[in-house]
Amino acid sequence: MAAGRWVTGVAATGVLVATGAWVRWPAGVDGPLWEEVRPVIEARLAAQSQGTGYGATRPELGARWFCRARALDLDERDGLVRAGVATLCVEYGARDGALVECGADAVPQEVRLRRGPDGGYRVVSREEAPDGAGSAAWRRDHFGLLTDPDRPDPAAQVALERAARSHFGLPADAHVAQC
Prior knowledge:
Layout: E1 4-7, E2 21-24, H1 31-49, E3 64-77, E4 80-95, E5 98-115, E6 121-128, H2 135-143, H3 154-167, E7 176-178
Parallel strand pairs: 5-7
Antiparallel strand pairs: 1-2, 3-4, 4-5, 5-6
């Protein structure tokens, strides 16, 4: 769980006004730990997405999913890592020298990982906000009041396009088209 604080007064800046509310603040992210678990999280997201997008119906595109995770909070206790992440997954293919975007999904998630006997991590559970009415409450309960898991991350989009162009052997400036 992320570190929490009990707020009993009124914030002087007026940004947060709460009395007796439990607030979960984003915890500091341990950089070396994040570097270990991030590739595992991103690989799991991409693997679970394969075959689910429009690109799967267009075999000539050779479409596949590319995923990027941004840490919102990270905590390790007793060998179990809880990672609150904002994710962006985009399905890309290639056609006529262009990168083709076929679908995308951006979802905040809570991922739990455990270190295996080989020293690497493996995902043991993954949870995301439900669709509809419960979504806002889930996001608040998992990430707190001050963390915006839906904040766009332009760097993630750029990184995914770069990885997809490389995967498909396209030049760095290849045009991005829609399916």
